[in-house]
Predict the 3D structure of the following.
Amino acid sequence: GLKTISGENNINISNELIQLEKPGYNNSIMATLIITISIVVIATIVVIYNAFQISVVERTRQFGLLRSIGATRKQIRQIVLREATFLAVIAIPIGIICSLIALAS
């Protein structure tokens, strides 16, 4: 609640604001936020890694064909990395835009 102390100086005291200033309360919110963000980041990394791993496994036959006509392991690795970079350049901005839209609404 809000209490008013009358006298020379009109002073309003808000117990809710005083509670928010307690160091333990803000620290626990920050810790919860950090843990939640960490879980989301780790889950995202795992999902992206698995998606690329599945793509590579499915394309093993194509990579074998490229190797049989003379492509080196380095060239195949560069193909995979270029594909990943291309997808990231498209996906990251789209993800950021969607996040901003979600936060705005």
In short: Helices lie at 15-20, 23-58, 60-68, 73-104.
